[in-house]
Fold:
Amino acid sequence: MKRINELLDKAKNLGTKIVAVAAADDDVVLRAVEMARKEGIINALLFGNVSKIEEAAKKANVDLSNYQVIDSKNPADDAVKAVVEKKAHFVMKGNIKTGDLMKAVLKDEYNLKTGRTMSLVSIFETSLYHKLLVVSDAGMTIAPDLEQKVHLIENAVLVARKAVGVEKPKVAILGAIEVVNPKMEATVHAALLAKMNERGQIKNCIVDGPFALDNAVSKEAAEHKGIVSPVAGDADVLIMPDIEAGNIFYKSMVFLAGAKVASAIIGAKCPVALTSRADNDETKLLSLALTCLMVD
Structure:
């Protein structure tokens, strides 16, 4: 995949998916759902307070006759149950705290856990880089330990392989510097993750690090530092050291570099779609397309 808009075409080829929207009384979310419905990639079950959903739909200029609106006092649980009962393919966050929705997704009774940490995986397209770039984690895992970083890699590699079509992604583990410093945990994690990959503990990708950001995305910078690695300057996946770095990178790419982006939460048996009020319409649509692609 060369362009992020190809996500939409790929999602269309899979046919319509059903999304269960938890607390659908949010005009921004309803507009995103409506755009995706008109593109033919989803339909939706809308859970929540019916009168509030009707009010939000009026504000968003969305005709609710195209949807099934379900009155619910516990929209997170009811949306997740719809997935468990095969009435929907994935869950979408509406007017509800992310933590409250994730608690429902991770309840033992729903059996949606995979043993992996859930993480936000984003795909970026920017004219400043020669291919699509998969990044994790800008919004879920606050300070990932070594095991969690293995899961972040697995989630991001899954997106790179299934959505972007990169058979063996090159994964760069980022830190502030490109050498191991025992006082900087991110660099120690990077070296361990690279060795784990070398010994087959992390599969379907090539992992190397530590890398400073410039060495991961610029061959010139890597050569200047004398770094010899198949990942250097040609990374498909960037793994951030913590949520602060990931979040700042994400917003810098969007608001300063003008990058296009699509994101989904990966790691459970069904993906979770989130859209932000700060996201533009294209980002919301592409994020829903990405979530559709990750359903299986």
Q: What stands out?
A: The chain has a mean pLDDT of 96. The radius of gyration is 19 Å.
